[in-house]
Structure formats: structure tokens, C-alpha cells
Amino acid sequence: MSIHEFGLILDKEIYLLPEEAEQLLTKRPQPVLEEKPHSHQEEFEMEGLEEIQTLAFEGGFEKGILVIYEGKSLENSLSDYLFKILGAVSCSLKDIALANSEDTEKTTMASITALNPNKIIVFGKVRHEIMMSVKKTYEVHQEDEIEYLFADDLKQISESLDLRKALWKELQVLFNITKK
């Protein structure tokens, strides 16, 4: 059973520590392939692996900002709310890569860093190794030249004045916005 399959049945998050990753990869059983010519089945499996490595996202990613939200899609009201937030920091869909948690969970951290984002904002919980970078929610921190901001789910933020204030305070730090 893969870690992704475990994520479908477990109700708590599992974190993989970097020092354990190598150990798990070396112990991972390798599939036994029969010695036969290249088949269509193998082609299909190889294509599937390539898809898993690439993060699907919307947007132009012109400013190198990756925004990940919890869930498969956003309701219209939450989508409008997200773009209102982004507009407040002078960003639109052309500036960001907008990814849902389901697509993100199918990728590796290497595929995310391959995009070369300079800022990553995560709204909600994502069953992905990116969550190992959470130091504290609503607090910008930097790792390997990438600035991270982790916040609650957009629905929770939209319903709480305190969460909206905390998010705005950190967005000002993240985007270097000074009060005039």
C-alpha cells in the first residue's frame, strides 16, 4: 500500500521525515517485470508516472507564486474571495499557479520545487510533504529561497474576522506591503 493510499483511509496526517525518506525508498519492493518485449501496459504505467510528477495548475505563474487550496475545486464564492485577497496584493490568475490539494497530493516535493516558485501559500490542509514546512500558521518563513505562508481553509478565513486580520498581516509581510 502506498502512502497516498494510506492517506485515503487515515484520518490524521502522516509526515515523512527527510532522513527517513531514503530509508523507505531503499526498502520499497521493486515490481517484478517479466522479460518480454515492451508492452502497451508498460507504456500506460510509464505515462501515469509522468503525470504524477507534474503539478496541474491554473494560471500564468508570471510572478512565481504557487497557491494551493484544500479540496478539488473552489465554490464560486470562495473563488471570488481568493481573487479578492490576491487583488489586494496586486496579483491575478496570470501571476500565480493555482493548484488544488487533490492534484498536489499526486506530486512530489521535487515536482513543486522544479516549478521554481519564490512564494508558496497554502490554504487548508494538504496531505503532502509540503506540510513538513509548516512552522506556524499565519507566519511567513523562508526555506531554500522559497517564502512559505500556511493558513486555514478559505471558508474558515472568510467566516472569521480574526483569521482575515491574521492573513492580511502576513500577506503584507510576504508581499512587502507597507502602510501609507
Write the layout of secondary structure elements.
Elements: H1 3-9, H2 18-27, H3 40-53, E1 65-69, H4 76-88, E2 96-100, H5 101-104, H6 109-114, E3 119-123, E4 141-143, E5 146-151, H7 154-159, H8 161-174
Parallel strand pairs: 1-2, 1-3, 3-5
Antiparallel strand pairs: 4-5
Report on the structure:
The protein contains 8 helices and 5 strands; from the N terminus they run H-H-H-E-H-E-H-H-E-E-E-H-H. Strands 2-1-3-5-4 form a 5-stranded mixed beta sheet. Helix content is 41%, strand content 13%. It is of the alpha/beta class. Strand 4 (141-143) and strand 5 (146-151) form a beta hairpin. The N and C termini lie far apart (55 Å). Mean pLDDT is 80; it is low at 28-52. The longest helix is centred in the N-terminal third of the chain and has 14 residues, at 40-53.
